[in-house]
Design goal:
CATH superfamily: Alkaline Phosphatase, subunit A
Radius of gyration: 20 Å
CATH topology: Alkaline Phosphatase, subunit A
Order of helices and strands: HEHHEHHEEEEHEHEEHEEHHEHHHEEE
Shape: globular
Helix content: 25-40%
Distance between the termini: 37 Å
Structural class: alpha/beta
Number of helices: 13
Strand order of the largest sheet: 2-15-14-13-1-12-7-8-9-5-6
Largest sheet: 11 strands, mixed
Low-confidence stretches: 1-14, 342-370
Number of domains: 1
CATH architecture: 3-Layer(aba) Sandwich
Strand content: 15-25%
Mean pLDDT: 75
Length: 370
């Protein structure tokens, strides 16, 4: 006798089918026009209780924009425990669990190769970090991902007219969100401070990516401090982090890039890159619905380095929260999903916006996303 699928799997599949129905047919009764751009935003290791514990400290344009403008579903969950970055992002975009989509961990032992493998490794690809050529460094691809993602289905349903772009600081997050047939997937190379891709997607970086890397936005933060927003209640503009390099060291160097990765400024840089992707890839400008998937990893880096209850980790959700909602608010005719990942809980939000910014949100109880 066949077992009935867990309710959470059915819910995820129904949600994906609904988004596709809206995107393709545009006939949803509560959404009169098909969205031009679907946004999926994942915030890694962001506990749902942060939204409650730090509510009084949130600024007007930050998470309060979401909490005050929509419904909050606080009893949603995925019925599985393998919530490392690879399995978690694969589940979010496929609607399947690890035993189905094949990404059972960030890495695992592969008996046929007699060695451990990384979830997105692909020795047949090369890293692409320049506008005119690929490098000799091995790249990444969804080689081990079984089945299709939301983006794969959207592309197939529109005869590949829809554009699908995935962006993250982590390669495994970008690759697995993008699926098998995205228009592009980009991730951050902490060693060089650049956004890169692999030959699985393209032979060389587009000119706009090369220009973004060449202008090196990380330079803008040299000599700066991580300070609390002036409008955050009770924070008093305190300094939460500061890089102290040696006088003879140039900036940005590897030490500075390592420090910057554990500050909310990396969210600013990543979202700046995402805005350039929207402009230069003309996302949301065609006749068919496009999809942009973004994963913000800074919270996860801070949580692993300092623990979820450390001061900086706790302040991270409070500080700089005004940045990304203000950015997203300018992306009109938008439909999307926001997921908060955490050590004990994750939040799933379905955002629907046309002329205003309206959201619904949900939470699931799961471990963290390493």
């Amino acid at each position: 006798m066949l077992k009935r699928p867990p309710i959470s799997v059915l819910t995820a599949l129904l949600l994906m089918l609904f988004l596709l129905r809206v995107a393709i047919s545009g006939k949803a009764t509560d959404y009169p026009r098909r969205p031009k751009l679907v946004l999926i935003l994942v915030i890694d290791q962001f506990r749902y209780d942060y939204l409650v514990r730090f509510r009084q400290q949130f600024v007007a344009g930050g998470f309060n924009l979401l909490l005050n403008g929509g419904a909050n579903f606080a009893d949603c969950r995925y019925d599985y425990a393998i919530t490392a970055t690879g399995p978690g992002h694969a589940t979010l975009l496929t609607g399947a669990y690890a035993n189905v989509h094949g990404i059972i961990g960030n890495e695992w032992y592969e008996p046929t190769l007699r060695r451990p493998v990384y979830c997105v490794e692909d020795l047949t690809t090369k890293l692409v970090s320049e506008s005119d050529r690929a490098s000799a460094t091995p790249g990444f691809s969804p080689h081990y991902l079984i089945g299709s993602t939301l983006g794969d289905e959207l592309r197939a349903a529109t005869d590949f007219r829809s554009k699908v772009v995935a962006i993250s600081l982590k390669d495994r997050a970008a690759v697995l969100m993008g699926g098998h047939s995205p228009s592009a997937a980009y991730w951050y190379d902490p060693g060089s401070g650049r956004f890169v891709t692999s030959t699985y997607y393209m032979p060389a970086l587009p000119s706009w990516v090369a220009k973004f890397n060449r202008n090196s936005p990380v330079k803008e933060y040299c000599g700066g401090k991580w300070t609390a927003l002036a409008e955050t209640t009770g924070a008093n503009g305190q300094t939460l982090g500061e890089f102290r390099g040696m006088p003879e060291e140039s900036c940005p160097d590897s030490k500075f890039l390592g420090w910057l990765q554990q500050t909310p400024y990396m969210n600013e840089i990543e979202l700046g890159f995402a805005r350039e992707a929207v402009r230069n890839e003309h996302l949301g400008q065609g006749t068919d619905t496009d999809l942009l998937a973004i994963s913000l990893s800074v919270n996860d880096y801070i949580g692993h380095a300092l623990a979820p209850t450390a001061l900086k980790s706790l302040m991270q959700p409070c500080e700089r929260t005004a940045i990304w909602p203000r950015s997203l608010r300018s992306w009109t005719n938008l439909s999307g999903s926001i997921t908060f990942g955490s050590p004990s809980q994750r939040t799933t939000e379905l955002l629907r916006t046309r002329d205003s910014f309206r959201t619904t949100s949900g939470v699931q109880a799961t471990p963290s996303l390493p």
